[in-house]
Amino acid sequence: MMIFSLRPAAAVAAPLIAALIILFFGNRIKPNIRESITMIASAIMAAIVFSMVPGVLKGEIYVSELWQIVDGITLTLKTDSAGMVFACVASALWILTSIYSIGYMRGHHEKNQTGYFSAFAVCIASAIGISLASNLITFFIFYEMLTVATYPLVAHYRNDKAKFSGRKYLAYTLISGQIFFAAIVWVYVKYGTLDFKAGGFIEAGSMSSGLMCIMFFMMIVGGAVKAGVMPLHGWLPSAMVAPTPVSALLHAVAVVKAGAFCVLRVVCYVFGPESAAWCGGAVILSWFAAFTIIISSFIAMRQDNLKARLAFSTVGQLSYIVLGISLLSVYSITGALFHIVAHAFLKITLFMCAGAIFVITGLSEISTMKGLAKKMPITSVCFAISSLGLAGLPLMAGFISKFNILEGAMAVNKIFAIVVLIAAALLAISYLMPVVKVFFCKQEEPCEKDSPSAKYSKTSIAMVAPIVCTVIISLILGFVPDAGPHLYDMAQTAAESITGEGGIYLAE
After folding, report:
1. Which residues, at least 6 apart from 146, have a Cβ–Cβ distance to it below 8 Å?
2. Do the Cβ atoms of 436 and 387 come closer than 8 Å?
3. Termini Cα distance of the chain
4. Contact 84, 53 (CB under 8 A)
5. How far is CA 381 from the centre of its chain?
6. pLDDT of 31 higher than 50
7. Which of 15, 167, 203, 459 has a CA positioned 20 to 30 A from the CA of residue 482?
8. What's the pLDDT tens digit per position in 176-202?
9. Domain assignment present for 508
């Protein structure tokens, strides 16, 4: 049942209004007021998003028609099960990331905090717009808005390295965005619609397989760049020059998740399983994803910088989502959607731990963190738990998503995918658990470097509390995947609507 409502539009408007207020008043308002605006907006947005969950679970569709761009193309926001999974994750994590940001930015005495909080809010608004977009043009507008809003965050420090990383990020994302837009125009000219449809609206055989494959990858490239699929991942490790909360935003909340979600929309809501398989695009995409998972894991092992190791971990972990989507089964798509959830909570925990370590001790290299658990036991334990979850340990959220993807691979008899998934789990342990071993080794605690953050160690509750919360949520989702807003149920519902009940299993 379709219900015209202001709630989807209000969910996007709340962070945008907050961003404008913060930016307009700038340094004329006290930090406490600026941060209060952020917290109030995040709470309002989360309340709006989660208020729509019961209706979506019952099959209700909330629609906000904003304005008509041209004849037949309207800027429209609409809820569906897949979009609500992403929206729930983004809205929940904005609250926790905002609390963490307050602790980090104050603790590290960061400059440009007004610009930081306003740009962060725009990024979250863009993510919600992406999740609730009802058609390709609405999706593209918010997708590019996310690109532009992320740039000042990546270039936050305004030094040469930060500016270079920001320009590199823009080069990758804007060029891929233009290719994506060209494909959108092609689709509209050829098929006369841009509206997302579960199972896709492009029919197999409506053009030659070669041309359809070109169209497929012109659209996929827009998502693959943001998702960090190799060889299009180059911007992601460079972006680690940004403050740690920005890294958390990039890797867990908005940017890379938006890229993975773009792949989902293109494969499942534009082409559909049948056309994606018929043109050969899904098979090629699955091989790219498998390659990325393995190679990024080996690169991660070689990184001594903690954020760099986590960055290459993200490159691999996001390709789990891409692989699950490309396998085209109800199980793998369910797993891919739920991995958006699992990876978000697990990876944001790891990045927040890395940030807390840096603020408290001034350390960023793993080799210098021997015996860290003695000084920061809670942070170290949370890092260990999340590492095991990301590797796919049973009773953790990461196990639920990865097991579903594995089950989907077995359903379509993709032996290479099965081998990759098993190998990747072992590799994840190989590059994450050595970090944990360093933390808990029996040596003297690491020495604090000269850092403006040293005096903050006594008041780090604003950083520790979100870390503990994300770990607890990850554990709950591992034990009870449908706890709270029923994210697993919505992921499964979305997968069934895409493939048909029981799933469409396409081995070729």
Report:
1. 123, 126, 127, 130, 254, 255, 258
2. yes
3. 36
4. yes
5. 24
6. yes
7. 15
8. 889 999 999 999 999 988 999 988 899
9. no
Q: Is 367 among the domain residues? A: yes
| DSSP notation for 283-352 | HHHHHHHHHHHHHHHHHHHT--BHHHHHHHHHHHHHHHHHHHHHH-SHHHHHHHHHHHHHHHHHHHHHHH
Residue from 366, 386, 97 nearest 255 by CA: 97
| Beta strands 73-78 and 61-70, pairing class | antiparallel
CB distance 264 to 328 below 8 Å:
no
Angle value at C-alpha 299, between 294 and 300, nearest 5 degrees: 95
Amino acid at 470: T
Q: CA 259, CA 272: separation in Å to the nearest integer?
A: 18
CA–CA gap between residue 289 and residue 264 (Å, rounded): 13
- The angle at the Cα of 505, spanning 423 to 421, to the nearest 5 degrees, equals 5
In a domain, 452, yes or no: yes
Task: Supply the DSSP string of 209-276, one letter for each residue.
Answer: HHHHHHHHHHHHHHHHHHHT-TTS-THHHHGGGS-HHHHHIIIIISHHHHHHHHHHIIIIIIIHHHHH
Q: Reduced to 3 states, what is the DSSP secondary structure of residue 449?
A: coil
Identify the pLDDT of residue 170: 85
Q: What domain count does the chain have?
A: 1
Give domain status of residue 504, yes or no.
no
Residues spanned by the domain of 62: 2-499
Radius of gyration for the chain, computed over Cα atoms and rounded to the nearest angstrom: 21
Closest to 127 in 3D by CA, of 250, 273, 232, 311: 250
Task: Name the phi and psi angles at 20, rounded to 5.
Answer: -65, -40
Assess contact for 408 and 495: CB atoms under 8 A: no
Q: Which two tokens stand for residue 325?
A: 């989507």
Identify which of 366, 362, 364 has the alpha carbon closest to the alpha carbon of residue 451: 362
